[in-house]
Amino acid sequence: MMRLLLLLMLLSPWLSAKTLVVGGTLEAPLKYLNEKGEPAGLDVDILATLFAALKQPFRVELTDSGARLTRNAEIGVYDMVFTHSYKPERESYLIYPQQSHLRHSWHFFVRKEDAGSIRYDRLSDLKPWRIGLTRDYAYTPEINAIADDPAWRVQMVTMNDLQLRKLVMKRIDVVPMPLVTAFAQIHAEGMEGKVDYLPHPFKSSPYFNAWCKARADDQTPALMQAYDAELLRMKRDGRLRALYEKHGIPYVEP
């Protein structure tokens, strides 16, 4: 089990403000360690930019275990956790802000040269094509239903990072993936210009940096209100979009 604790202090923090502990899982390009062993990624940059404006110090603690992250959030190891979707059961230990900073948008990826000939408005549009699916992946019920249907040309694998490689090698024609995950692999493996994605998402969900109830205090409501206001300003003045562009991730309005 790997647990990484790193300090990320903002410029000119309030001396009176407590340093928030923000937990997250290692998930490039959102949260990872750079070549210096420091926390980096889109999530880290967004929070650093936002908290710099609020003069709020924080440090980042990353783990490779989602179960450990949840447990630490529940017992009060963290003040906040990075990038959680809303689920009613999580309200027992998390407090969600009003503003989301990320929208995980899932699209069908195709080869660049096929982007004009393959269209997607409904799933049946893709029936003539070879579709790559990853076993036990969180698609939609409609997509999961075609996995074992012999009327569809589905190729199943157990490792999702094989899908774009198979697409480039022309072993499949279409593969569903979230934009963030896909573009991280595209940049890492030099696939720019070789693949594209169809414009209509088949699944889209907002994600939030949430506060942990176990560590909340009487200053938390005011800080959350300031957080929401600053994140909204970042959306309106283009700073949020610029951070997405810095990391090579297509911007989808959260």
Automatic annotation (TrEMBL):
It comes from the Bacteria. Residues 1-17 form the signal peptide. InterPro entries: Solute-binding_3/MltF_N. Keywords: Signal. The keyword Transcription does not apply. SMART domains: PBPb. Pfam families: SBP_bac_3. The keyword Signal applies. Gene3D superfamilies: Periplasmic binding protein-like II (3.40.190.10). Residues 19-250 form the Solute-binding protein family 3/N-terminal domain. Belongs to the bacterial solute-binding protein 3 family. This is Glutamine transport system substrate-binding protein. The lineage of its organism: Bacteria, Pseudomonadati, Pseudomonadota, Gammaproteobacteria, Aeromonadales.
